[in-house]
Amino acid sequence: MKTIITTPHAPAPIGPYNQAVLTGNTLYTSGQIAIHPTSGNLVLDDIESETKQVMSNIKAILTQANMSFDHVIKATIFISNMDDFQKINTIYGSYFDDATAPARETVQVARLPKDVNVEISVIAVK
């Protein structure tokens, strides 16, 4: 059995998918990019502000599912330029305690939706 998780505090999907799906105690988020949920505009001023918007979107989805970053067990980060890795990592890392940070992979890709620079998805468990 699955429950679709949606919130107006994260951007609406730009395709045939949902913001997240909860099955049992496990939440799977779709990849989030730096779309501001209210304006619908991309936040692309710099990689730090872009990553902060992505993490804010993830936080909104986690909150809607009555979870927090403490519940995240796995993250996947797609980036368009590995030279941005350290800046993205610094922002991403500020949302987790080092001792309980989730498992993760970071992959450089040729292109991301709407030509953004970073996309992140997470799996969380209550």
Automatic annotation (TrEMBL):
<dbReference type="InterPro" id="IPR006175">
    <property type="entry name" value="YjgF/YER057c/UK114"/>
</dbReference>
<dbReference type="GO" id="GO:0019239">
    <property type="term" value="F:deaminase activity"/>
</dbReference>
<dbReference type="Pfam" id="PF01042">
    <property type="entry name" value="Ribonuc_L-PSP"/>
</dbReference>
<dbReference type="GO" id="GO:0005829">
    <property type="term" value="C:cytosol"/>
</dbReference>
<comment type="similarity">
    <text>Belongs to the RutC family.</text>
</comment>
<dbReference type="InterPro" id="IPR006056">
    <property type="entry name" value="RidA"/>
</dbReference>
<dbReference type="InterPro" id="IPR035959">
    <property type="entry name" value="RutC-like_sf"/>
</dbReference>
<protein>
    <submittedName>
        <fullName>Reactive intermediate/imine deaminase</fullName>
    </submittedName>
</protein>
